Amino acid sequence: MLVLDRLGKVYPNGVNALQHFSAEIRLGEIVAIIGGSGCGKSTLLRAVAGLDRPTSGAVTLDGIGISAPHAKIGIIFQEPRLLPWLSVADNIGFGLTDLPAKIRRERVARALERVGLTDKADAWPRELSGGQAQRVAIARALVPQPEVLLLDEPFSALDAFTRRDLQDHLLDLWADTRPTLVLVTHDVDEAVVLADRVFVMRPRPGRLFEEIKVNLARPRDRNSPLFDNFKRRVMTALDRSLDRNVPDIDPKSAAGEAMWW
Amino acid sequence: MAMTVELPALERTDAIATPAPSGRLRRWVRPALGLLLPVGLALAWEIIVWRGLSNGRLVPPPSKIFATIVELAKSGELVRHILATLTRVAAGFGLGVVAGTLLGAVSGYWGLARRLLDPTVQALRAIPSIAWVPLFILWLGIFETSKVALIAVGVFFPVYLGVMGAILSVDRKIVEVGRTFRLSGPAMIRRILLPAVLPAYVVALRVGLGLGWMFVVAAEFMGASEGLGYLLIDGQQLGKPAQILAAIVIFAILGKTTDWLIEIAAVPLLRWQDAFGRQGGAV
Questions:
Q1: Which of A25, A248, B246, B252 has its CA 20 to 30 Å from the CA of residue A17?
Q2: A33 touching chain B per CB within 8 A
Q3: Residue of B142, B132, B140, B135 lying closest to B225 (CA atoms)
């Protein structure tokens, strides 16, 4: 269980990026965090990753406090961030150096196969397309078998078609080991396709505005009316989160069942 | 409109006119372009002296310089001088590179080390390196040690500065990848920072080597019984311009060759680069 306990972050320049963010995320759950710009969603993710320290509150994973990058937590960034001097296979195996070479090679080979890039094993990152590079980044993050995988707008730089493809692909890979996924996005479609729960955040200071449960069986049909319904709910919540006249609601009481229309 | 239609057509006829040999030709012609100017000038001077338009006493023609080199080579003198100079450059370059790389990496990576170390190094760098000569002779004597030390000092600064500057400008996003995989300090340097700075490092090494060749001459000027620098001084004192020019030509050849060796050695290490220069730059 990943527990975020009243996380807050005030940057040295006085910007209050995140305030009192609390959530409990079960193992294997997929959570999407969505919100307007400056709502602290990336700040939140970096705190969970242990890359930045929150100014208040704490992140715990299975009862262990997270204050620095942890072996059980992987992260995928907006850009693939591959190391240009390593081949695709070596990039994927980057986090596996503690393992014996044979096991490492096997795991990398399997990961390459899973992301459909076996023929690119010896290619340089510069030879990949944007979508392929991001698939390598996903494989690199998944191959150490993390319990929690954080994704910071991972598909936002890709075209719509590649994005859909990779979303399906990610779900496919997730089904292998079922890690917890925490996904930051600004794409409503992406949130509803992937997530069990959608956290809608509100900016200045960044805080939780509403939590929406997406009770849809996977694989989800992007064209079904139910899917549309959830999309509309997230969209409405987003609109309201950006409307200054709407007061904060207690996200806990609104959680899931609050069908206010 | 007309441009976009005509240009590809032009290129195609070009390719048809010279089909297979164009690749092979280009491989030989391109490097040969660099020889055009020096060979042309040498040839012109040779002709001028040969026609008696100049006596060529102070500026001997290429044939005389070549004869001097052959003469020195036959007596075995040349090899001795070249070896002496090469040994000094190699020792000084090696020491300078090791020290510059280590200190550059340390002060590029640890902020505290940089704040402690860098101001002093920068202050030392501001001293013209030749100014050390009298002190080095007093401290280390007039033989090899002081010469190697002077060359090492010359090599150290560009390498130090190159490594430190390059590490400081490594993309934060890539360093973060290292952090998420929980690399220790040395592992971060070895697996992320050094490969990332490799292209800049090669440049720093080449600059350092250039300075090494520069300082070996200074070192050999300050009293040596052998070495190419000694040949220069000897040629000046005995009025043998051909010998001076022979030494200069050999310096040029050695400098260019060693520089080229670094370049060649770096090629397999930099194959991953996605850079402008890889495609040969703009035409």
A1: A25
A2: no
A3: B142
